[in-house]
Automatic annotation (TrEMBL):
<feature type="transmembrane region" description="Helical">
    <location>
        <begin position="43"/>
        <end position="61"/>
    </location>
</feature>
<protein>
    <recommendedName>
        <fullName>Magnesium transporter</fullName>
    </recommendedName>
</protein>
<dbReference type="InterPro" id="IPR018937">
    <property type="entry name" value="MMgT"/>
</dbReference>
<dbReference type="InterPro" id="IPR053279">
    <property type="entry name" value="EMC_subunit"/>
</dbReference>
<keyword id="KW-0812">Transmembrane</keyword>
<dbReference type="GO" id="GO:0034975">
    <property type="term" value="P:protein folding in endoplasmic reticulum"/>
</dbReference>
<keyword id="KW-1133">Transmembrane helix</keyword>
<dbReference type="GO" id="GO:0072546">
    <property type="term" value="C:EMC complex"/>
</dbReference>
<dbReference type="Pfam" id="PF10270">
    <property type="entry name" value="MMgT"/>
</dbReference>
<keyword id="KW-0472">Membrane</keyword>
<comment type="similarity">
    <text>Belongs to the membrane magnesium transporter (TC 1.A.67) family.</text>
</comment>
Length: 137
């Protein structure tokens, strides 16, 4: 389908270029006359051909399963690769598409995560344990 999509994109771009050139020449020659029907139809035809080519040449869509992914990260936590950045933060695995944000501590509830961000679930757990111990310092 990529070849057919590329061919349709090329043909559509040629028709679109010709329609734009024809429109430019028509408005330069007859500034106050309406656009002829053949130029309008060529423009619409080129847009339809380009749209079909873009759809056919695009990659297949992936199913939307962010809720399932977020649940797995919540249960298992992020998995490190054993590599570290210059700032001393661990690089997360490919399984976490938002790992570059460094929000691992906030998502999985293990650690503080990115500097400057507060782990709400971790603090809630600490507070619950503090209350169970009697709430004294």
């Amino acid at each position: 389908m990529a070849f057919l999509g590329g061919t349709l994109n090329t043909v559509g771009a040629v028709f679109l270029t010709h329609a734009v050139y024809s429109t430019s020449e028509h408005t330069a020659t007859f500034p106050h006359a309406p656009l002829p029907l053949d130029i309008t139809l060529e423009l619409l035809f080129s847009i339809l051909i380009l749209s079909a080519g873009i759809v056919l040449s695009s990659p297949t869509l992936k199913p939307i399963q962010w809720a399932r992914w977020a649940g797995r990260i919540q249960r298992e936590g992020p998995h490190g690769e054993g590599k570290w950045t210059r700032e001393g933060e661990e690089i997360l695995s490919e399984g976490d598409p938002f790992g570059f944000l460094g929000l691992d501590g906030g998502i999985a509830g293990k650690g503080e995560g990115r500097r400057g961000f507060w782990d709400v679930r971790g603090k809630r757990k600490e507070y619950t344990e503090w209350v169970k111990e009697g709430g004294s310092r």
